[in-house]
Amino acid sequence: LRRYTMKNVLIVSGHTNLQGDSFANKIILEDLQAKLPNATFDFLDQEYPNFKIDVTVERKKLEAADIIVLQFPIFWYSMPSLMAKWMEDTFVHGWSHGSTGKALHGKKLLLSFTTGAPADMYVEGGIQMYPVETMTTRFQQMANLCGLVYEGYIYTGGVSYASRPDAEKVKIMEAACHEHADRVITRLKELSK
After folding, report:
1. DSSP H helical segments within the chain, as ranges?
2. For each of the chain's 193 residues, which pLDDT tens digit applies?
3. d(Cα 189, Cα 159) in Å, to the nearest integer?
4. pTM of model > 0.85
5. Of 27, 19, 18, 14, which Cα lies nearest the Cα of 184?
6. What CA–CA distance (Å, rounded) separates 31 from 179?
7. 148 Cβ neighbours under 8 A, 6+ residues apart
8. 170 CA to centre of own chain
9. Of 191, 146, 189, 137, which is closest to residue 32 (Cα–Cα)?
10. Is 120 helix (H, G, I), strand (E, B) or coil?
11. 4 and 189 Cβ atoms separated by less than 8 Å
12. Are 62 and 10 in contact (CB under 8 A)?
């Protein structure tokens, strides 16, 4: 694997059980770790299996970052519960927003997420009813409130745990996950200019 050095990137993994129950996010994060050795990785499930967030530690990580990547699977049309708890505890009035809450101002926010359902299901009026972009509005609103610069998202669909028993589907999903990681790295290079 080609290694790429980048400063001040924080990648927050929001999967609630990355090692035990992830397919896609595990592969994506392994690739990112291999190719971004200078990035800071925050594996919430390893740090906080009991959901008790160390707010001081998390704020220091966020304050040190220029680019924040939220890496997660979509669970029930939202971020995983652990990532939501991390955000609820860490991003509070007076620190992340409000008249004195300027800690995140000017930092870049990039979303990187996956869905089990294929991307073509996320269309207006389709099986999933709405385009996948609709699931990003909460993050856009949060970025706006906190003075973050919302830089969009990298998305891969069709990486379902239900397909794990099928060897051919696994190969296709693995390739999609490696390609996803490469797209994240390309975007991070663009954002670092």
Report:
1. 18-21, 24-35, 44-47, 55-64, 81-90, 137-146, 167-191
2. 444 445 799 999 999 999 988 999 999 999 999 999 999 999 999 999 999 999 999 999 999 999 999 999 999 999 999 999 999 999 999 999 999 999 999 999 999 999 988 888 888 888 888 889 999 999 999 999 999 999 999 999 999 766 667 788 889 999 999 999 999 999 999 999 8
3. 25
4. yes
5. 27
6. 10
7. 68, 104, 105, 106, 107, 108, 109, 142
8. 22
9. 189
10. helix
11. yes
12. yes
Q: How far apart, in whole angstroms, are the C-alpha atoms of residue 153 and residue 72? A: 11
Token pair recorded at residue 135 = 């699931």
Two structure tokens written together for 38: 């200078």
Residue with tokens 């207006």: 124
